[in-house]
Automatic annotation (TrEMBL):
<feature type="compositionally biased region" description="Gly residues">
    <location>
        <begin position="222"/>
        <end position="231"/>
    </location>
</feature>
<dbReference type="InterPro" id="IPR005225">
    <property type="entry name" value="Small_GTP-bd"/>
</dbReference>
<keyword id="KW-0342">GTP-binding</keyword>
<dbReference type="GO" id="GO:0005525">
    <property type="term" value="F:GTP binding"/>
</dbReference>
<feature type="region of interest" description="Disordered">
    <location>
        <begin position="190"/>
        <end position="231"/>
    </location>
</feature>
<protein>
    <recommendedName>
        <fullName>small monomeric GTPase</fullName>
        <ecNumber>3.6.5.2</ecNumber>
    </recommendedName>
</protein>
<dbReference type="InterPro" id="IPR001806">
    <property type="entry name" value="Small_GTPase"/>
</dbReference>
<feature type="compositionally biased region" description="Polar residues">
    <location>
        <begin position="205"/>
        <end position="219"/>
    </location>
</feature>
<dbReference type="GO" id="GO:0003925">
    <property type="term" value="F:G protein activity"/>
</dbReference>
<dbReference type="GO" id="GO:0005769">
    <property type="term" value="C:early endosome"/>
</dbReference>
<keyword id="KW-0653">Protein transport</keyword>
<keyword id="KW-0547">Nucleotide-binding</keyword>
<dbReference type="InterPro" id="IPR027417">
    <property type="entry name" value="P-loop_NTPase"/>
</dbReference>
<comment type="similarity">
    <text>Belongs to the small GTPase superfamily. Rab family.</text>
</comment>
<dbReference type="Pfam" id="PF00071">
    <property type="entry name" value="Ras"/>
</dbReference>
<keyword id="KW-0449">Lipoprotein</keyword>
<dbReference type="GO" id="GO:0015031">
    <property type="term" value="P:protein transport"/>
</dbReference>
Amino acid sequence: MTSNNRQTTNAAANRSTANGQAARTCQFKMVLLGESAVGKSSLVLRFVKGQFHEYQESTIGAAFLTQTVSVDDTTVKLELWDTAGQERYHSLAPMYYRGAQAAIVVYDITNADTFSRAKVWVKELQRQAAPNIVIALAGNKADLLAKRQIEVADAQAYAEENGLIFMETSAKTAMNVNDIFMAIAKKLPKNQDSSTTPGGRRGNDGQSLTVDQPSNPRSVGNDGGCCGGSK
């Protein structure tokens, strides 16, 4: 984990209110969608572990990770579902974005087809996901400017038309990776009154990276995000 990620996690874990009480904790389910090889897994790995692997194996089904960040006086625990981008896994996607409070739709700035596909994912989320879901659009591989096929202005205009958070990112250089996750965390509602983790799963504060391919994904994360005062 990089120094910035450690500081973010430590700040979330150690933050207290002025009266000495532990900060409020909220937990949310976030899903990453996009074509295969656009860098979804690399973005999550960079955010959670501060690492980048030049050659990343394709995700099968979905990978589950967590990270904790601090937003004002609230500790925000993010349950991150990194979905497979191959077409044969498309039918599984609703099992993972059902009940999600946030989504990052990722495309590769060097591949116009992945941007077209990202638009399809956005439409699907707008039609089938929770009505108040926070959606971000990430133009990944921004370090490959010489191979750019999608202009920033075009992606920005599309994002504005659809009410999306938009940033170009690079998992390789870490450009805007923390920023896009933090922008989402800041927009998530933190006034819900519950003390249970979505789907009953308790986060690991981003200290470990685990892969989870549930036999029954419908049972995971079907409830809304939760907030409650830490004991």
